[in-house]
Amino acid sequence: MTFRLPPFPTLSAARRPATALLTLLWLTATVVAAEVPATDHQTFSDYWYGGKAELNRYKLEQARYGQIHQGDSVLIFVTEDFLKKEQVKRDRGKAPADTVLKLNAMHHFNTGIYTYSLMTSSFTTVDYRNPFTHKVAFTGQDWCGHTFMQLNQRDEKYRVQVRSYFQGEGDKDFALPTSALLEDRVWTQIRIAPASLPTGRANMVPSLQFSRLRHVPAKAQPVDLSLEKVREAAFGTNELYRYRIDYPELKRTVEIYFQTKAPYRIEGWRDTRTSGFGSDAKPLTTTAIRTHTVQEPYWRLNRVSDLPRRESLGLTP
């Protein structure tokens, strides 16, 4: 049996393709409307509560400065206990805690002589009807300097901190409503309960990584959201779900491709936006394609003798 959750109060009715089968010319993909099954609690528990993290490596082609740069992305998913008041992982004691699915998303690429290292951590409650993200943190390092941004849920608001070496950004503190959808929530929401993904017209806060790389304020933007089944040659021969986020005012589109069965592994993504500055600015697409996945208790594998295990992820020792 399959079902769709009722639309969120802030969303318009979900829009679906008028035909059962469409051809997307630029993607060379077939598309049909998606009906996502409810998350099976036992299947989720068997996969995520086994004492290991899921480690995924992706071949990354990153748009930056008007060109495409080669790199690696690693997405690390793991469940843990989270203290909502302190906004930290519970690593001792018995204080009441929420079970969250944590994602550490890391992206590494070179632009000419120097290196970018980007990381976003998100903490989302394991709720099969409406997963909620309590905290998101982003850090970015390159040879020019580093930036930091964090959202923490406090009552009915996200408290936002920005720390940057750029004059136009500097140090800022402000708030966003917790009613706003977060792009950074989508990745864990897919893994917990893809049937809860909102569709239709809404407002969404773009990813913290996007806000910092494009040097734009973090605020809710109008979006069109859709969830469909596709066959896309770039991501293999199997049918996949594609979650599409369209930001018309930002001229940006994000597409996340994931498997149609639990544990809903993410096969890759595309992020199309303006890249470059001035007369060199043009639309380019960042693409990531999954190449390796393993389950490991990585926090224990920190000895020199564990270096060869990196090869199982397609990474150099």
TrEMBL record:
<feature type="signal peptide">
    <location>
        <begin position="1"/>
        <end position="33"/>
    </location>
</feature>
<keyword id="KW-0732">Signal</keyword>
<protein>
    <recommendedName>
        <fullName>Septum formation inhibitor Maf</fullName>
    </recommendedName>
</protein>
